[in-house]
Amino acid sequence: MTATTTETAEQVYVPAAETIGAVLDPRERPARPSALSASLTFGWRAVLKIKHVPEQLFDVTAFPIMMTLMFTYLFGGALAGSTGEYLQFLLPGIMVQSVVMTTMYSGLAVNIDIAKGVFDRFKSLPIWRPAALVGNLLGDVLRYVLASLVITVVGLILGFRPAGGVAGVAAGIGLLVVFSFAFSWIWTMCGLYLRSEKSVMGVSMLVLFPLTFLSNIFVDPSTMPGWLQAFVEVNPITRLVAAVRSLMNGTPDMGELTWVFVATAALLAVFGPLTMRAYNRK
Amino acid sequence: MTETAIETNGLVKVFGDNRAVDGLDLTVPAGAVFGVLGPNGAGKTTAVRMLATLLRPDGGAARVFGHDVVAEADAVRSLVGLTGQYASLDEDMTGRENLILIGRLLGFRTPAARVRADELLEAFGLTAAAERQVKNYSGGMRRRLDISATLLNTPRLLFLDEPTTGLDPRSRNQVWDIVRAVVSYGTTVLLTTQYLDEADQLAARIGVIDHGKLIAEGTPGELKSSVGAGTVHVRLRDPAQRADAEKLLSAALGATATPDPDPRRVVIRVPGHGTEHGAAEDAARALSELAVAGIVVDDFSLGQPSLDEVFLALTDHPATQPATEKEAAA
Ligand SMILES: Nc1ncnc2c1ncn2[C@@H]1O[C@H](COP(=O)(O)OP(=O)(O)OP(=O)(O)O)[C@@H](O)[C@H]1O
Ligand SMILES: [Mg+2]
Q1: What residues have their beta carbon closer than 5 A to ion ligand 2?
Q2: In Å, how far are A171, B57, B242, B244 from B291, measured between CA atoms?
Q3: On chain A, which terminus has fewer CB atoms closer than 10 Å, C or N?
């Protein structure tokens, strides 16, 4: 079916000099788009791609649901006496884990785009250079929000009753998404430097697994051996989870929040320029 | 004096210890097709990518309409468009969405970008396929969409990097017609190719590059006359007549036959005359002389000189293929 339409379309087409000339007619060139507008255009592309390839949302929906169910019932009874009680502790953490895990797809997407040559065209356009990368990340932000909402809903169904209410949960999600946006630059940079999709995946797994599991997501660090406690304490994910928990519990912890904001700014300040350097060099 | 579209001086790009472009000096006049002819790995893509500001030169300088490709990259970007050797389209998006995306990135507001996209789709015969994802396009349609995306900004200089490699003859002819149309409306085109035939068909001037250097430059006629006008192949019914046929053809074409293992075949490389039609006229005369002498010819052809013959004539070595290196490295 597709083949036949292709055939007929091909047969019919005879390039006509006048029609091609008409589209080439030099008209007033529009002004160069602003950095924001170019970034939003790339964000629109990311959304369109979700529309055309909805399977890619599997990662941000099925995976978090599975994680929440698995760990609630696996550890709930043993660790907190009841799954309901454990869920109050686990849910903000599992949300952080799922979303932070999703950040690695930013690196994959950039790597695939480059391998396919799409970036060549973008780079030859007179636009704000980081726009393509920022736009991709804006699309990713949408996925982070979606993943967070899916987990919130699953949590509510299972009995998660956050003391912070709607505002607390929204603030927690907001903080998580902002941090993840900054964190994604690391993987975008890897996506630019590393040769293949597989190596990006490998490197990000190698970092994300210990970072998310060796944290305060599943158990209270005070039950851990001293050397592990030391690692968990300096793990940025621990700080992020503590901050998100405090917001969702309605007891914002200013110390943890400040830490997360400083980390977010630092990630952007360091990895933004590094990523752009890699991008310009490619 | 015509305006100069591109001027490079000692342009260099090194990958590791491979000098992909090695001191390229090129002057491309505006308003016509300039053909860059070279075998695999000659450095065509690398040179074009530097001129389109996608790669930073390691040495030398290049100016596009007077703007330096490094110091004034943005100015160059607003004047040129590049259709790369491999399509730079988003496979997951439809043809129309691809064009709207580029339009918006060029600063068109969404409604204007839509209008522009539809005009281009129409001009390039893609209206019927507009709503289909690019991954379902044929090679020819993809190529046309890629070119139309490049023309969105009405560039003054269009780079086409091997635009017909891998296309069937019909799609290739469509691309050729598009190139002719684009040039007739005043856009300068720099086209790279591995086929002398293609450069001959389209280009006003041709530059031949090998190992990253320009080894010859001129009009197709000049180039061909330095190479020879082509090769005549004659296939005889009766191998016993071969010696007579060779004698007759050599005399008529003014060249000696190249030895050929097939006892029924005579192959003669025709020297250049500096004119386009000399060889064909001579060959026709030679054929009728064969007929008069009662020598039956089963098959006859007058072939254009191949890229290999061009290289043989220009460099005394056939077109080398470092492409195998490239594949091994990939
Ligand atoms: N990114 C790269 N890294 C390393 N080597 C490269 C790179 N790009 C090209 N090369 C090398 O530079 C040389 C010139 O390559 P280039 O692609 O410019 O040739 P080309 O004339 O376009 O060939 P083709 O007809 O195969 O497209 C080759 O030897 C190739 O292996
Ligand atoms: Mg090439």
Answers
A1: B 44-45, 85
A2: 94, 59, 14, 12
A3: N
If pLDDT is split at 50, 70 and 90, which confidence band does B273 have?
A: low
Q: Lowest-confidence range among A102-116, A249-263, B10-24, B103-117?
A: A102-116
Nearest residue to B211 via CA among B34, B12, B62, B72: B12
Between chain A and chain B, how many beta carbons pairs sit less than 8 Å apart?
A: 147
Count of the separate structural domains present in chain B: 2
Fill in the amino acid letter for A78.
A
Nearest CA to CA, how far is A199 from chain B (Å)? 15
pLDDT, residue A29, reads 78
Tell me the β-bridge partners of B235.
B265, B299
Task: For residue B296, give the CATH number of its domain.
Answer: 3.30.70.120
Give the chain B residue nearest A4 (alpha carbons): B138
Task: Identify the CA nearest to A90 among candidates A117, A64, A59.
Answer: A64
Tally of residues, chain A: 282
Residues 6+ apart with CB under 8 A from B330: none
Euclidean distance between CA atoms B21 and A149, whole angstroms: 53
In a domain, B320, yes or no: no
Residue B135 lies in a domain: yes
Give B54 to chain A, closest Cα distance, Å: 6
List the strands of the sheet with B80-83, edge to edge.
Answer: B80-83, B157-161, B188-193, B33-37, B205-210, B213-218
Task: Tell me if residue B81 falls in helix, strand or coil.
Answer: strand
Torsion, Cα A51 A52 A53 A56, to 10 degrees, reads -20
Counting beta carbons within 10 angstroms of the beta carbon of residue A159, is it exposed (0 to 12), middle (13 to 18) or buried (19 or more)? middle
- The model's confidence at residue B63, banded by pLDDT at 50, 70 and 90, is very high
Residue where a domain stops, chosen among B224, B256, B274:
B224
Q: Which site among B51, B72, B88 would you substitute to test the A interface, given the most A Cβ atoms closer than 10 Å to its Cβ?
A: B88
Residues of chain A with pLDDT under 50: 1-7, 9-10
Q: Read off the pTM.
A: 0.81
Q: Which residues constitute the domain of residue B245?
A: 229-304
Among the candidates B192, B224, B256, a domain finishes at B224
- The 8-class DSSP code of residue B187 comes to -
**Secondary structure element (H or E) that encloses residue B314, with its range:** helix B307-315
Which tens digit of pLDDT belongs to each residue from B33-49? Answer: 999 998 888 999 999 99
What ipTM was reported for this prediction?
0.83
Q: Measuring from atom 2 of ligand 1, which residue has the nearest CA?
A: B15
A124/B54 Cβ within 8 A: yes
Asked whether A261 and A236 are in contact (CB, 8 A), the reply is no
pLDDT at residue B2, as a whole number: 75
